[in-house]
Each structure stands twice: as structure tokens, then as C-alpha cells.
Sequence to fold (305 residues):
Amino acid sequence: MSSKLSEFLLNKMSMTEVYQPVIIKELLNNNGQCTKTDLAVALTRYDLSILDYYKKIVMRWPKETLTKHNVIKYNKDNELFTLTPSLIDLSNSSKEVEICEEKIATWFDKKKNIERSPQASKSVRYEILKRANGKCELCGIPSSLRPIDIDHIVPQSLKNKSGKVTKDGELIEVHSEENLQALCYRCNRAKRDTDNTDFRRTKKLVRDNIPNIIISNGRKPKIKALKGNQLISALNEKLIEEHEEYISEQDKYKSVEELADMYEVIICLAKNKGVSREQFLEIAKAKSIKNGGFDAGYFYEGDEK
Fold:
């Protein structure tokens, strides 16, 4: 006789992701109770993108460092890691396990203290995320799809005794907003401690009236007029940027504004291919008459057999 849970699993549970059965399985395997952290860890075991990411991490710094110190050996044929036998008696390894746990706890305490510090306050985090429009400044993914970290562009490991770092030839406070950027957890984990790459999209193509608007606000913009292939390349990047902003925008009116931005970029791309705004609209109209628009919502799934 099947239980009510079996009935739910077999007949009622609808899935857009693997989350529900993983959580239920984890609870069943732990006497019906798990912490939020336990369940989050369980989900990561079934997230292929996270698994692939950490497989790459394992093969980079941990493998390189531990192999260099002869702590581990790696067999690429069967992808097997092995502790060097001469280092430890595996039948009596409790002391080393305890040391590892202490090291892990110390690292987490240090991380928590940094996050609680005034330099990493909620207000600073808010300003950085606001500046980045709530998105990763490297890959552009929004915070609604992937957690966003606040990253030091010039790492803290490179600061001098006064707590300052050199950025663009000038000494600045390591925790200043000028040295902070928003990166999703995947992009941030891929950035090494010595990497000082600034991923902020501070240099980008802007609408024609933006320089005068900046000047009217009392600032002095540094502007360069692009032409030819440089302009085409910048327009292509701008189209991707505007598309990302449209996808992540939840407000109905603002999302339409993003579509308007995409339209202007497309018009400018057409002009650089020798087609005027009027000609482009005629081409769009002719194609609509021939093939129709997308109003009916037809989704082609192949031909019937």
C-alpha cells in the first residue's frame, strides 16, 4: 500500500527543476529533519553547473599547491586523488581531521568578521549593487538568478601598511567604493587573489545627448567618438547589454524603455550598414506582410510523422 508521500511524488508533484525530490530524499535519509544549510548543500550535489565549476577549482589551486608540496598525487587516467601514503596513517587520522576542521572554522570566522566590518556595511553593499543595477559586472547575470558578491578589484592581499592599494596609478583605500565591484559567485570564485581586473562597465557606448547631460550636472566626461568597425563592435556590445537589462527588468514600463533602447541600437546598426531608419522600417514591414509577426504565439516543434 503506497503512502500519501508516494502518492504526491508519483501523481501530484510537477517539476521545473530537480529541487523537490532532492529535498524530500534528503529529509527521508535524515529521519525527516534537516537544516536549511543541509538542504542547500544537498541541492548543490545535483546542480551540474556548480559541480563543473568546482571540478575546475579542484584541478587548479588545490591540486597545484598540494601536488607541489607532495601532499597528494593525481592519476589523470581514472581521475583519482590520493593522499601521499608516507605522510599519514589513514587508520589513525582523527588528529589531522580535527586540525582541518579547526582551519575551516577559522577561515569562516575570518570571513564573517570581514563581512561585519564597517567597510563591508549594508549601505556600501547597497550602493555597489545599485551602481551595477543588481547584476554581475562581468557576465551580466542578475541577482535574481545568481547570488552577487562584493569583490575588491585590487585584492586586500595587495594593500600596504596603511590599508591602501594602488589602482590606476593612485593610492586609494582598499574598501573604498572605487575599489569595489559586483560579481556573481561564479565569476568571483574564478578570480584569483592576485587578480586586479576591473570588470565594471564604466566604459560603454551612450546615447548622443548623454555627454551634455553629464556636463550639465557639473562633471567632465571623457568622450571618444567611434567610427567604422569600432562603432559596430560597440553597438553589438550595447545590444547585448540592453537585452540583458530588458530580461532582468521586472517593472512593465521600464522594460518597454529597455526595448526602446534596443530599437535605437538596432537602427544605428542598420545605418552603419547603409540602411536608413525609414528603409529599415520598410524592410521590417515587408517581412511582416510576407511571414507575419509573432502575435499568434506559434511555437514550431517539428513536423508531424
About this structure: Residues 115-119 have pLDDT under 50 and may be disordered. The longest strand covers residues 148-152.
